[in-house]
Predict the structure.
Amino acid sequence: MTEKNITLKIKRQDTPSSSAYWQTFEVPNKPFANIISCLMEVQMSPTTVDGKTVHPVTWDSNCLEEVCGSCTMVINGRVRQACTALVDNLEKPITLEPMSKFPVVRDLQVNRERMFENLKKVKAWIEIDGSHDIGEGPIMPDQDRAKRYVMSECMTCGCCLEACPQFTLDNTFLGASTFNQVRLFNLHPTGEMRKEDRLNAVMGEGGIADCGNAQVCVEVCPKNIPLTESIADIGRQTTWQAIKNLFTK
Amino acid sequence: MMNRKKKIIIIGGGLAGLALAMKFCERNGEVTVVSYQSLKRSHSVCAQGGINAAIDAKNEGDTPEKHFYDTIKGGDFLAHQPLVRDMCYQAPAIIHLMDRMGVAFNRTGEGHLDFRRFGGTLYNRTAFAGATTGQQLVYALDEQVRRHVHDGAAKTLEWHEYLGAVLDSEGICRGAVIHDLRTDEIYALQADAVVLATGGPGQVYARSTNSVVNTGAAATTAYMQGAKYANGEFIQIHPTAIPGQDKLRLMSESARGEGGRIWVPRDANDRRDPKKIPESERYYFLEERYPLFKNLVPRDVASREIYDIVYNQNLGISGDPMVYLDLTHKSREFLDNRLGGILDIYTKFTGVDPRETPMKIFPAVHYSMGGLWTDYGPDNDGLIDHGSPRNQMTSIQGLFAAGEADYQYHGANRLGANSLLSCIYTGLMMARGIMNYTDSLEKSVEDIPSTVFDDTRAHWQNRFKDIKKMDGAENPHKLHHELGDIMLANVLIVRDNKSLEKAVHAINDIETRFLDVKCLDTHDWANPSPSFINQLYCMIHLSKIITKGALMRDEFRGSHYKPDFDMNQPKDFDPHEYIDYLEQKQYGEVSVKKFPADHLDYMKRFEANNEKWLKTTVAQYKDNQPEITYEEVNTSLVTPRPRKYD
């Protein structure tokens, strides 16, 4: 028998510089309820358990089916997407907090700009000549494609970075998701042509050598991306690149 | 000719917007992409099954011409034919481009692109990247645009919302008013052209397969500024979705493309575990009713049949509005490789593994074939002149639309895996036309008095000030759900004029109650409440367009099904008879001896109905209501005829 009502304890913050505070809400439990539908209930009647009417909680979300990466937050102490967090499977009361490794924008919203900037740093793209019609792409074994596909499902959600002990609010560590992108593009026949640029970008401060090998990234990845394999592989590729640099630069 | 780079503002960071951004940068233009959220998170990522191109990798004799015909027939002949034909001819080059950009498309043994089946065709025409093709395509285009941002050619304004177009004294679009969703600042941007690539309007129904941002607000604002909105009543209901509180999640057509079968127990009281029900006691109703296309009939057909099974035959599983979608006869390895992404979604949201147990699914609102009316420039070969400034331009000069936000490519019903194609196609195709449009302008944006921009900005600033002052009794989110409930109850798969009239009145009530809305949050930092209230206002107007269009269209075409106007095609009718009939008509009255009497009668009725209704619906904003008129459809390439899939 499931409960009639769900209690949500939510960590709130009005602006990036103001201090955080907690509020508790009670929402009706409905079939298939997830954290998003609970937050929608709060929007429809934004009153705390103390009977105080407040402004509705704000959060990021879009696709609600775990492909866009928007609605990452810390639920009962664990970082994950709110859409796939089904209420029936969660300990009650449920606590919701914003991710701690990114600056809070407001309530459960954080600024993940750093992740997108890192994609630029490592040139996470294929350098095509142009989008005009110049025929087929490179032929590729399906096994290689399958290997790349798993990596390319990364939705820049930030779970791996939230869990990583090395990644902090104020350092420059690139983190597992970025290393995984380097591997993804280095594995493509055209992408490989710019392999050196990407490997040079992950050397030095904040780079691959700073990884403490805690291996928690892979545990929290909602897409089961083999992040530790990616890190190990990029570690090896970078070592070879460093040796090569010694002789060529 | 101006002395600077041509600059455009693209609203929306989905496939259409990103494709255009990339192409325009390559043509040395200056691009600003405005997005409601971070790029990479647009609704295009939700597309699952694949993207169509007649590459004929399986040596079945597929051609772009056949792709064109399937698309036109799938859309019940309501789409403008030269555009669809051009899109289908461009499709192979588009797939090869996306492949070059690194999309992890599944491959054959020899390492070429692999293709699978989808609805409304008998060919393996759909390229796919697992079952997250939309996500993979968005990422590839996003990466290219990111590269242009890195190189300084493009700029992005993420967490910004489009509020409206800046129109000069001649009604030409000269820029856009943008709302910073973090700082709450509202300002006007100048541009040579503005492009709305803002996706569909599924949120009008509150619960659909669409994402949270798909409110249709940008397109509706354009309509309220004078742009025509076309074919609004044609809303696609996807046959297979997973029930949910916050959203009805899509279960891709590719599940059936890879062999998934739809069935219900033959006995309505059969409550056994589905795996324990023997083959002979299962009703594979699509296979029995459509022996040629089987489970891969087009979406409008499949949704109607599921509706019939559940509500007319009362055969829903355990009396609930659900049917089985069964993949359990396929091996785990095969399923993981080709459908892993969507099967994981099902498992995560229901706790049931579809590799072991048949899925329970039901139709849900999915896509709008209608959208902003846009123009095109045909060439002399039944294709499109890609340099024409008319391409994708709305009825407001200088304001363009692309992707799901426009209306031209899918007629009365879209075929699966054609939406990703139409999004990328429009984005790529329109770039040259916009360049030429800019050259043709007599006055440049610099010649426009600054008051034009100041006034429009002030209009929106005042609008938001007024919204923040709203202090009534209605919760805007509750009102949104009530609007959605009205639409779901009355403007869905099966439509009748009584319910539609009821919906018109109910929407008017919602509009009145909207005046009594309370703005729940008046902060000026990262406050979504005023924006949502503005979007709700737009959704109310969009629901009027959809409902009035549906009410007025007294026929059955594609997704718009009114049983009262079903012409009841005779069971043994062959669509080719109709072509024969038209030919014979050229020589005078067709003799009653030439065709069976009921066929002849049907064909006459069909012809008369097309005379009247094979038209584009055009809604224009007049006195706070949509005024509906009709326009001719370009059917210059293939003769419209009755559809048949059995």
Residues 113-128+137-248 of chain A form a domain with the Fumarate Reductase Iron-sulfur Protein; Chain B, domain 2 fold (CATH 1.10.1060.10). Chain A has eight helices and seven strands. Strands of chain A lie at 5-12, 21-28, 72-75, 78-81, 94-97, 104-106, 109-110.
